[in-house]
Specification:
- β3, α3 and β4 form a beta-alpha-beta unit.
- This protein has one domain.
- About 40% of the residues lie in helices and about 15% in strands.
- The two termini are about 15 Å apart.
- It has 6 helices and 6 strands.
- By secondary structure, the chain is α+β, with helices and mostly antiparallel strands.
């Protein structure tokens, strides 16, 4: 994983996008701490929220495709304070307009992923079957909803972080 810097310095966002991202991170965290569930906020190219906060379940949140197409970044929380999941990596890879993802754990740790030129080049070499095979390889280590500090969850998280870096994503953990 990359360095441990303030979130605003990690990626290239406009001033409005950075401001809304900070607000969105706080809103997702507050929603999660209140409900115990995930929530999602989408940020548009203009730096504004696309719609409102989208509530989810304990382990996922599923936005409307139309809203996703209007956004360039997403923010969501992980109630178990786990790092980014394989599903998070896949979402960022294949939502073509999305350049950035922020995941805030309930312990305050922030995970960021951003596309790079290497990511775009990687997507020209790998097929969906390759990605599915990698998913199966990673998931044999996953204790799906175990606590973040669980040894099997740690193995899975490291595998996901390695895969994110392999596909050229700038993947970072920002301690609170």
């Amino acid at each position: 994983m990359g360095g441990s810097q303030p979130a605003g310095e990690l990626i290239h966002l406009s001033k409005g996008q950075r401001r809304q991202t900070r607000i969105g991170i706080a809103e997702c965290l507050a929603h999660g701490l209140k409900t115990g569930n995930e929530a999602l906020i989408l940020i548009g190219a203009d730096g504004k929220k696309v719609d409102g906060t989208i509530p989810g379940s304990k382990y996922s949140v599923n936005p409307d495709d139309e809203l996703v197409q209007k956004s360039v970044a997403s923010i969501h929380n992980h109630p178990g304070s786990r790092p980014c999941s394989f599903a998070d990596v896949m979402y960022l890879l294949f939502e073509n307009k999305h350049e950035h993802m922020f995941v805030i754990g309930h312990n305050g740790t922030l995970y960021t992923m951003s596309r790079t030129n290497e990511t775009k080049e990687w997507l020209t070499r790998w097929t969906m079957k390759d990605i599915w095979d990698e998913h199966l390889r990673l998931n044999k280590h996953q204790w799906r909803h175990g606590p973040a500090e669980d040894p099997l969850q740690l193995v899975y998280s490291k595998a996901v972080a390695g895969f994110a870096e392999e596909v050229g994503l700038d993947y970072r953990e920002v301690q609170p």
